[in-house]
Specification:
- With 228 residues, the protein is an all-alpha fold.
- It has eleven helices and no strands.
- Helix 8 runs antiparallel to helix 9 and helix 8 packs parallel to helix 10.
Length: 228
Amino acid sequence: MKASSPLMAARSISDPARPGALLARLTVTRRLVLALLLAALVGAIGLVQPTGLLAPADQLAMKIVTHLRWVPGAEWVTLLAQWLDRLGEGGARLGITFIVALFFARASRPGAVIWLIVSSGAVMLLNPLVKMLFMAPRPDVIEQLVTASGHSFPSGHAAGAMALGGAVALLSRARPVQLICAGLIVATGLSRVWLGVHWPSDVIGGWAEGAAWLLVMSLWLPANEARR
């Protein structure tokens, strides 16, 4: 039993399924190339949206949501989506960031604190700038269950969830925390379509934006945090 413990620990640290291990396999060049590809995806979606090429898929998803809202128990999905809407607002997301940062501070990980705040907070400044480039209108094909202002593409909630959840997943060593982060990223994006305030292509663009930013920020991930 004693001899197997170091081996099990080594497997846990080098587990290729962990976000940190996957990131460590990417060289600086590959990270930048992947970030550029994701940024190009955001630009491509934003340019193609007005042409109507994405409309059939976007509108089909909205029609499916319309029918699903009448399924028994759908009110609980709506309630969860409304809570995710509140938690995904800029102020709430910033508050969550500082709360998580406190846990890293108590663990004597100052590098993680700074990296988390910058990684998550900068998206709040980046997303409005990207929105202004495309000035996409909000969907109006189904009832909007929450009030949403500003332009539609890319989804700020999706981008923010990807940046915050992805940053915490990269810094955390606990698999349950990483799974929770992944679940919140997916749930936040899907909730925007459920609430009728974003097209699916808006959400995909937001996820791509947040992931691209995380890849860029990974270049400044403190060495001691990367080794963790």
